[in-house]
Amino acid sequence: RKYNVVVTRQLPEAGQILLQDASDIEFVQWTEDRPCDRDWLLQHAKGASGILLMLTEKVNEELINAAGPQLKVIASFSVGTDHVDRSILKSHNIRLGYTPTALTDACADLAVMLTLMSQRRGGESLRKVLDGQWPQMPWSPLLLAGPPIRGATVGFLGFGRIAQATLKRLLPFGIARALYLTSRPRERAREHYIGLLDGSGIPVEPAQDWREVARESDVVIVGCALTPQTKHLVGPEFLATMKKRAVLVNIARGPIVDTDALVKALEEEQIFGAGLDVVENEPNIPADHALLKQERCILVPHIGSANTETREQMATESVRNLLAGLRGENMVNEVVL
Ligand code: GLV
Ligand code: GLV
Question: Could you read off the pLDDT of 142-168 as tens digits, one per residue?
């Protein structure tokens, strides 16, 4: 017996091979290099036992109903699952696979890149050179100077795998202290993270609340999941509480940061700068978007996990999750619904 499966993108090679080698599935696949059309997905989901999809595809009642009662598994090629209505899956006994471990290092690397670029005005510097301004801007003692990473207090909103990996990378830069806010119960969190910084000698402390993170940090790194509780967590009040010399880095999900409030904070120099891998309403960011007018804002197009090996690994992991879900076996990583 073969399981019908839908795959919403061409996968990096290793994943594609795994898919083709699985003898117990029959799959249809979207082949264009852009997110699949919704109609195509709804149509092909009918009768499918498994769907391997990207964060660009919403998993909601519409899709589950279109598929039908034989649907057993959704395998998402992502760490984030905010595109998935978990309660619908739970009520239909559908398993959900994701790829949280594959991309930890890649995303942490990007968080460091955005931190340093924001502090050292990388985007602004590049822009000036590309605009031909360097001739009018000879070397000078405070040209494009920014705050140092040495001695910084780094505050994390969310302290999961990626945030912890980011913290490890920042230690050799000589940061002074780390604070984190997590939805995990305080005591458990402490116990869980206590071994993390063995030997570094710097304090790593749970914050009382977001205010403490905003008030104390020289670098705020957003690494939490998008939930109703974290939507616009970084809004006008948060930004007004931050230090004028602090930078904000978002490598999680766009809607956690209120874009209008961020534009205003940058305009009014309430904060020093921002480095964003994600933004509300991405990818619909036209060239005249207010954020892009802010020289102190660096915006890159959701490339956190974009190193080739990571993407290969995410592909093989999501295929393994898909197959395990169909066969009733253990997934590499499964969301507990
Ligand atoms: C990327 O944002 C992911 O969730 O994998
Ligand atoms: C900078 O290039 C310096 O020589 O200080």
Answer: 999 999 999 999 999 999 999 999 998
Among protein residues, the one with the nearest Cα to ligand 1's atom 3 is: 78
Angle at 171 between CA 166 and CA 172, to 5 degrees: 120
* pLDDT tens profile 1-40: 799 999 999 999 999 999 999 999 999 999 999 999 999 9
Q: Which atom of ligand 1 is nearest to the CA of 278?
A: 2
Q: Is the CB of 160 under 6 A from ligand 1?
A: no
Token code pair at residue 325 = 């879900």
| Residue 157 and residue 269 in one domain | yes
Which atom of ligand 1 is closest in space to residue 253's alpha carbon?
A: 2
Domain extent at residue 18: 3-102+308-327
Taking the CA of residue 98 as reference, the ligand 1 atom at the shortest distance is 5
This prediction's pTM? 0.93
User: For the chain, how many structural domains are there in total?
Assistant: 2
Cβ density class 121-145: b for 16+ within 10 Å, e for less: bbbbbeebeeeeeeeeeeeeeeeee
Ligand that comes closest to the CA of residue 143: 2
| ipTM tops the 0.90 cut | no
- Kindly give the distance from the C-alpha atom of residue 138 to the centroid of ligand 1, in angstroms, as a whole number: 41
Active-site residue 302, yes or no? yes
Q: Report the distance separating Cα 78 and Cα 314, nearest Å.
A: 7
Ligand 1 mutation target, pool 58, 59, 76, 78, most atoms within 8 A of CB? 78
